[in-house]
Protein: Adiponectin receptor protein 2
Organism: Lingula anatina
Amino acid sequence: MSVSPTTEVGFPRPTQQERTTVTKRNNTQTASIPSTDSNTSHTQSMSKPSTSNSRSSTNTALVEDSPQLISLADTEDLDDPDNGLSGDEVRKKTEEGKLLQDANYEHNSENDDEEEAGEEDALNPAVDIIHAIGRRMEQAEEFVKKGWWEIVHHNHLPNWLKDNEFLLHGHRPQLNSFSDCFKSVFRIHTETGNIWTHLLGFIAFIGIAGYFLSRPTIEVQWQEKAVFSAFFLGAILCLGFSWVFHTVYCHSERVGRLFNKLDYCGIALLTMGSFVPWLYYSFYCELGPKIAYLVLIFTLGGFCILVSLWDKFAEPRFRAVRAGVFVALGLSGVIPACHYVIQNGFWDAVNNVAMGWLVLMAFLYIFGAFIYAIRFPERIFPGKCDIWFQSHQIFHMFVLAGAFVHYHGISEIANYRLTLGDCVEAVVA
Ligand SMILES: [Zn+2]
């Protein structure tokens, strides 16, 4: 039997973090058992001061009925001075239990004679309990080391993790460890699709930005690189904040809230970054409108970031408000678009400044936000979209599609403008 480094006092004592994680697991196990009556009564009996005898009889019954119900939380009580056992006594009994466990294992594996079985029956029930607890403690320690956890039902989430009541099963519990959160990227749960949609987009935009910015100057001028960088930065930050938020928000309420704000700020940054190349090339030779609209979008974007930092903004009841705020930020682009159409005509806008692509991009963002706000299709099929095809994944896909369409659109505008040559005279005029 392997002995953990934490067993130097004879009883494996998990750290606070391990204890929280393991207790979560035990809660999960208990919740998954159809009838929790025995567990409830057990917990109650363990929570009040009692003699070691009454504790032993309760525990013995439980071990016989369902060894699964022995939890780490229960074992901690044994180390409490109230239970009537000193630390040395607990240690001694635990060691006895482990020795017996080894003996029992050998006994069972060799299929020995009945004489030893009779001796086992005669052992003190308290030793049996400690024996079972020791085994469970070792298993629990192994689970913690391996980042083991089970998906849980929505009803068993803490309130701060409850966001969408139409997703019933497959939620991660609170994980309390960044390592476990990042390992969960490779497991299947309600956030798997949300994480990977934007993680892959994040990687894709890093690749595109790296390729674009590494072009020789003779091919792409530094001005183009600077203007496009605003868009790349917005896209990479938005997608990066998003997948990291969906990965770590189950760590703790404080961490979840912080990264939720970064996630919202990312949307505002993507919108602002998207406007920069579009305004730059659409009003290439008109410094006044270009500056005015850039100031407008950065002011509105800054306002959205401020609103995002408000704690209540992330609450589920403000879902539609959030969608509305970011759609409004994007739709502020209607003002410069109208300006361009009035000044240059509709077909000029369509043919020369990729207005069609920009309208498609706006449609994708708005439709995605609409799906996000109404939570379709899980609203119609609760429990059927827990892992795949839930509204948030669809919203993520639309954001991703919108970003790629925008990149294509601004590339076309840039190509068109750059073929027209300089506009020194127009600027002077
Ligand atoms: Zn998201």
Notes: The pocket of zinc ion is lined by residues 194, 242, 246, 392, 396 (CB under 6 Å). The CA atoms of residues 125 and 347 lie 88 Å apart.
